[in-house]
Amino acid sequence: MTASECKFVGECGSCTLNLSYDEQVEFKKKFIKEKFSEFYGGEFEFFASVPTYYRSRAEFGIYHDKDKLSYYMRGDKRKFVLIDECLKVEAKIANLMQPLLNFIEKNENLKHKLFGIEFISTKDSLLAMLLYHKKLDGLKSEFDELASKFDISVIARSRGQKLVSEDENLSERLYIEGKEYKFSFSEGAFIQPNRAVNEKMISWVKGCVHGANDMLEMYCGHGNFTIPLASEFNQVLATEISKKSIANALKNCELNEVKNIKFIRVSSEELMQAFSGVREFRRLEGVNLKAFNFSHILVDPPRAGLDMSVINFIKNYENIIYISCNPETLKDNLKELDKSHEAVKFAIFDQFANTTHIECGVLLRRRSANL
């Protein structure tokens, strides 16, 4: 099955690469190889997705036409397009979408001023988050009924309000090189939306680790990479700015019985200040930065990439593993990193089949280390 079998192809603005999947792979390989040929001349590893039913997180708008509700997506040639199915979302979401909407449609309290539904699925659970333009006072029992009817978790959100049918955290299981890892994360957490490709990505990063001492990870989130990588290192120091993500990362250490990670809630700027001794932070009490011997740095920045202060900081270390969700900013960053480090491995991760979006991984080794 390919995107071309979707009845909304050419209208919906979500799946924009209307090619067979084999053609998509060749298109993306060619694009990345041409874009990064000045930095890397070796083999570009490609980690494929299934072409449909792969996305574990998706949000849809809700269109009201008198008493009838429809899902809608941003349109390719017009503002929006009404849909009654989506081939990109995981099967659990796809199978729930229309029955859930039919049920909501029959309940005026659930239907009134509903403007969006976001779905998150894991191996073990499914969450529907209902988004409203109204006060939700007195509606908790109706959301609980909805959750019970479909055996799912339900969160209802409005400005300044949040109603939760059960535990708002989700549980996930990933399998990396034959081992199961357990994760807990909140509904607002950043997650890799293609579970199977995420597992391949983590495995590839593990394969980048040789001659390891300690690792520094920046932008660690709830420990998606950190937890599986910990066994490759003596110690791991992982940083993240989100308080909730740090709380979940600590819980994930317990779930996986990992004891060699220190998670600290600092920004990249604060981390560099701490390393240089410019400032002391109460959040770093009990963490001796001088006790770490970092052989590897892992960065997984947002789409804006790394700023120059971070680039100049990570240049001090022998091995840099860079996970990128934006080839444009990755190229800009490599122009600077290439002055001190050589790209020795390069991977393409197809997180978003049927779109032009491409994620990459690069292993960079300090040039002096190769002499």
In short:
By secondary structure, the chain is of the alpha/beta class. The protein contains ten helices and 17 strands. The longest helix is centred in the N-terminal third of the chain and has 16 residues.
Physical arrangement of strands within the biggest beta sheet:
1-16-17-15-14-11-12-13
Q: Report the radius of gyration as a whole number of Å.
A: 22 Å
**What share of residues is helical?**
25-40%
Q: Biggest β-sheet, characterized?
A: 8 strands, mixed
- The SSE string, one letter per element, is HEEEEHHEEHEEEEHEHEHEHEHEHEE
Shape: globular
Distance between the termini: 49 Å
The poorly predicted ranges are none
Number of separate helices: 10
Mean pLDDT: 92
Overall structural class, as computed from helix and strand content, comes to alpha/beta
Strand content: 25-35%
Number of strands: 17
Description:
By secondary structure, this protein is α/β, with parallel strands linked by helices. The protein contains 10 helices and 17 strands. It has helices spanning 21-36, 91-105, 108-111, 140-150, 195-207, 226-229, 243-255, 268-276, 308-314, 327-337, and strands spanning 44-47, 57-65, 68-74, 80-83, 114-121, 126-132, 153-158, 161-164, 169-176, 179-186, 214-218, 235-239, 261-264, 294-299, 319-324, 341-349, 359-366. The strands form 3 sheets. Strands 1-16-17-15-14-11-12-13 form an 8-stranded mixed β-sheet, sandwiched between helices. Strands 4-3-2-5-6-7-8 form a 7-stranded mixed β-sheet, with helices on one face. Strands 9-10 form a two-stranded antiparallel sheet. The chain is globular and about 70 Å long. The mean pLDDT is 92.
